[in-house]
Design goal:
Blueprint: E1 9-15, E2 20-23, E3 29-37, E4 49-56, H1 58-66, E5 72-85, E6 92-105, H2 117-124
Parallel strand pairs: 4-6
Antiparallel strand pairs: 1-3, 1-5, 2-3, 3-4, 5-6
Helix pairs in contact: 1-2
């Protein structure tokens, strides 16, 4: 039986920039990156949609160590809305962010010459919820 309130997102895309990883005194690890995903469209040269990803715990370290700009990855996660007041305008701002629970490395990074991708996939394909 499916829950009425299901928040699961699956995406495949390319990493937009070098991952931004923070290590906290508590031991928590956070990696943020953007993901370029294409939309099904009749136009060949449609611009991709950019999605912000937030990754915590062990898979944050996998993302930091095994992804780079251009890496093809698959993610599963849930949508959350970051809300804040813009200091300059005083306007309320909202940014959709996907909190990633599963990460899969789907092929080698075009900018890298490493064969460690398969090894990383085993490590990455685990659920991590220690945030």
């Amino acid at each position: 039986i499916m829950s009425d309130n299901l928040n699961v997102i699956n995406l495949v895309g390319r990493v937009g920039q070098k991952p931004d990883t923070q290590y906290f005194e508590s031991g928590a690890v956070l990696t943020k990156l953007s993901l370029a995903v294409n939309r099904r469209t009749s136009k060949k040269e449609e611009e991709p949609d950019w999605v912000a990803l937030e990754i915590w715990g062990k898979i944050a370290e996998v993302a930091a160590n095994y992804t780079d700009k251009g890496s093809l990855i698959g993610i599963q996660g849930e949508l959350k809305l970051d809300e804040w007041i813009d200091r300059t305008t005083g306007q309320q701002r909202v940014k959709p962010v996907i909190r990633v629970s599963h990460l899969e490395l789907l092929g080698s990074n075009p900018n890298s010459h490493s064969n460690s991708d398969n090894q990383a996939e085993q490590t990455a394909n685990t659920t991590q919820n220690d945030f």
